[in-house]
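Researcher: Here's a chain I'd like modeled. Treat it as a single chain, no partners, no ligands.
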Amino acid sequence: MSDPSLSINQSIFYLYTKHTCDQPFICDECGKAYSSKSPLTIHQRIHSGEKPYSCDDCGKAFTSKSPLTIHQRIHSGEKPYSCDECGKTFAVKQSLKNHQFIHGGEKPHRCDECGKGFTEKGYLVQHQRSHGESKPYKCDECGETFTQSGTLRRHVLIHRGIKAHRCEQCGKTFTHRSYLKIHMKTHFRTELYRCDHCGKIYKQKLNLTLHLRSHTGHEVCPCDQCDKKIQP
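Model: Modeled as a single isolated chain. Structure tokens:
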């Protein structure tokens, strides 16, 4: 009868020799192994802090040429990866892959707390903060905290009075892109609101509601949940 410990030792020896033969280049700092010397050299820069590849436009440095090439597309505006479904272009191939989940309806990143799915891991991380109430981004002006860095950046614009989003139709400016989108609907809206009393037409429902006061003589308050109007 064969010794079972012998077969186990043989298996361990086989895996060890396979590992060292297939990946003979090993990092002295952390033990990570590679099949060739080039990726090991790039990896070791993580430990040494060396970043020999720098951007000519902004000076940002990188450990290898590949991330520098991707970064430079920010300055050049180059987006070589395009979606076959809608034609949208991307600077990074992984961003295209994440985008394609939208068309397929696939949401591979799922929240363990509530089961909600997301197309990208970054969106999942932001969502998970809503469960833990983690708001790591704080405004230096007023102390208000936020779950996302983008929300903080938009908030800071309020303090600075910056309105970076401009309407191409009329030139009106807004602090948030979402406010600009709402405003743009006033230029392209096909739905009109007509007064039943005098026939006057308005582009926005709220303006019609305010106009109705001239006929009723009462304050007319629209309900946020339905189309009913309340007269106090």
